[in-house]
Amino acid sequence: MEPGINTDSGNCRAVADVLARIGDKWTVYIVGLLSNGPMRFNEIRRAVSAISQRMLSLTLRGLERDGLVTRTVFPTIPPRVDYELTEVGRTLIAPLKQVGSWAIANRDYVESARARFDTVNAGSKTAEALGRRRTNALPKNPAFTSNSSPPLAE
């Protein structure tokens, strides 16, 4: 076991719960977008065009529930709703940037390892299931091509 990793079951559940929120693919994109300041719902939706309106609403509500995002409604016609990272939400920016940088730096290695695994395990249900899951893992947003990075990967 590595030093620094706490395996206490109570802590593992708490960490897993938080990681489920901040590790979600849409959360990473939304936190990255909001790291530049408040945005309106439709601005976020246009920036992450692959997300459905329902999924964006659910993700923003979850972030609001967890205290990572604030939602401000302005009494205009039509109503204006802004979303902004809270102070705690802003503390996610640095770690997510580090994870993004790690992912970009190790992308070729991971892709090679996957190819080796898939070759060795060709035809196995595990390799097929992992391949399907990986194919659907990232949003198909033209703003983020293979040569560009999501908002937090710098």
Describe this entry's structure for a reader.
- The chain has 154 residues and is mostly helical.
- The protein has seven helices and three strands; from the N terminus they run H-H-E-H-H-E-E-H-H-H.
- The protein has helices at 9-22, 25-34, 41-47, 53-65, 87-90, 93-120, 125-135; strands at 39-40, 69-74, 80-85.
- Strands 1-3-2 form a three-stranded antiparallel beta sheet.
- The longest helix is centred in the last third of the chain and has 28 residues, at 93-120.
- Mean pLDDT is 83; it is low at 138-149.
Descriptors:
3 strands, mainly alpha, 56% helix, 9% strand
Write the layout of secondary structure elements.
Layout: H1 9-22, H2 25-34, E1 39-40, H3 41-47, H4 53-65, E2 69-74, E3 80-85, H5 87-90, H6 93-120, H7 125-135
Antiparallel strand pairs: 1-3, 2-3
DSSP strand count: 3
Q: What is the molecular shape?
A: globular
Strand order of the largest sheet: 1-3-2
Rounded to the nearest angstrom, the distance between the terminal CA atoms is: 31 Å
Low-confidence parts: 138-149
Largest sheet: 3 strands, antiparallel
Spell out the helices and strands N to C: HHEHHEEHHH
Number of helices: 7
Report the sheet-strand fraction: 5-15%
> What structural class do the secondary elements suggest?
mainly alpha
The overall pLDDT, averaged over residues, is 83
